[in-house]
Amino acid sequence: MYTYLIIGASGSIGSNLVNDLLARPADQVKAVRAFDVDEYGLWKLQNEHKNGRLRLMLGDVRNRERLEMAMRGADIVIHLAAYKNLDLTEYSVFDCVDVNVNGAQNVVEAAFKQKPKKALLISSDKAANPSTLYGHTKAIQEKYYLWGAKVNDDCKFSVARLVNVLYTRGAFNDVWQYEQKTRGVVTLTHQDMKRYFITMDKCCEFIFRCLDIMSGGEVFIPKCKEVAMIDVMKNLGYDKFVISEPRFGEKLTEELYSSHERDRVKDDGSMFVIK
Fold first, then answer.
1. 79 — phi, psi (to 5°)?
2. What pLDDT score was predicted for residue 245?
3. Residue 32 sits in which domain range?
4. Residue 18 in contact with residue 76, Cβ under 8 Å?
């Protein structure tokens, strides 16, 4: 019987994790603490779940004392909170670093003090060989967690390095829907652009699988097929599109792991594991 703390609980992935955990029996999930700076998002969770096991916690990862209060007595910590938009983060450097980097440090330090059993960082394939500020901050987040696994015996720290999750808030589908509605034509930044994708259901299954098997110090990466974005666009019925140009730091293809990690990658069936 575990108490879960989800940091960044009102986002697309976080809210789905809340749903999945509250669907489990009480003898498996004692409580779910939903921590987020988004007041409206927490209000939505409250209205969607009339469940006494859900605890809503308004707070900010930049406030370590608040994190320590939220983490007290928690068994499992899932850290999702981050600024993610490539364009906004590139020109909001101080805020991006404050939330993503300093926030991760605060979570790790709070875990040192409160001693949950496990703390799992939800990272991104953009951390593997970063070309943007966002990617670099995710890489540093990973370093914090992997360092925590080396120097602390009370809490197991690991990383789940995700690929693009389909139909998350602010993802390409939101952009294309808005462009189709307002302009009648959608934009693709390069005709050869490719990405790895995972569905929300598979994403949540992957995260819970990581929690089940983690022993500390691992980077878990889901096995996914690389897909051409122009094929995604056509399959979704967007026949009218224009080719623009890649955004600053945007790659034509993403990497699941870096060259210096390659020798440590192990194939574990449905995922890659780096340790």
1. -105, 105
2. 83
3. 2-163+198-223+255-274
4. no
